[in-house]
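Notes, p. 3: input format for complexes.
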Amino acid sequence: MNLFDLDNRAVIVTGGNRGIGFALAKGLHQYGAKVIIAARDHARSQRACDAISPDSDRVLAVKCDVTCTKSVSVAFEQAQEWAGGLYGCIANAGVRGAGCALDEVNATAWRAAFNTNLEGTMNTFQAAIKPLKAQGEGRLVAVSSLAALHGNALFTDYSSAKAGIEGLCRALAIELAPHKINVNCIMPGWVDTEMNTDIKQDRRQFESIKRLRVPLKRWASAEEMVGAVVYLMSGAGSYHTGDTLRIDGGYHIG
Ligand code: NDP
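Output follows (254 residues plus NDP):
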């Protein structure tokens, strides 16, 4: 067997209907996984399934709002029923923060960043643990951000929520190791997705990020996140847990 073969492993990807999540769903499907796309905009999720493969029986869309425990548990039930179990879960759904100074951000905006990024990851993993334990092994992957590591003015909400995800994953990796469930994060750098449309429109900021801060001198494409996640989900990643893989074009050393 190929080390990276996913061989019908059922993997749910939250926020899999566009951007990084879509690239991950498509990549996992290419390597043989059964993929479940879980997001709020169901029509977009169905279009994403068609874009992955219009006639594949290894891809499904389920409606899911990660901020709502009921919605998450219904989505996971549908996913398991369809796939006949669950092997992996990628907590990718995320939103950027309010984008304003801490002394100006209001509590509602602050909580919104936490509800989707940190609590959404917690809700997602909570729903995944039972079926993964039943499977006797499994893989959880969360999507953190460079913002968890580097000071990011005007994004205290997003930065703290993403740093929280890393703490959650380290603790959970210890908790779930006896169940043969590996828990890791990926930490993307600047990725060219709709989340960054506003930054891309600001040519000066867009150019200065890649020229001054990224040794590889460019933004990443969403597809460049796929390899790390296939590795973590596959036999190749069997001894890897409690870690964060930085995929940032060298930003952290630049
Ligand atoms: P996008 O804005 O392109 O996509 C976000 C995805 O999350 C959409 O599929 C959206 O679908 C889904 N989503 C948002 N809120 C919810 C919710 N409450 N419940 C379920 N799904 C939800 O973002 P990216 O692809 O750029 O980002 C993906 C992840 O990567 C995020 O966690 C982000 O923080 C992280 N990241 C991104 C970076 C970048 O530069 N782009 C850098 C570092 C990290 P829908 O609206 O249908 O629910």
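The chain has one domain: 10-253.
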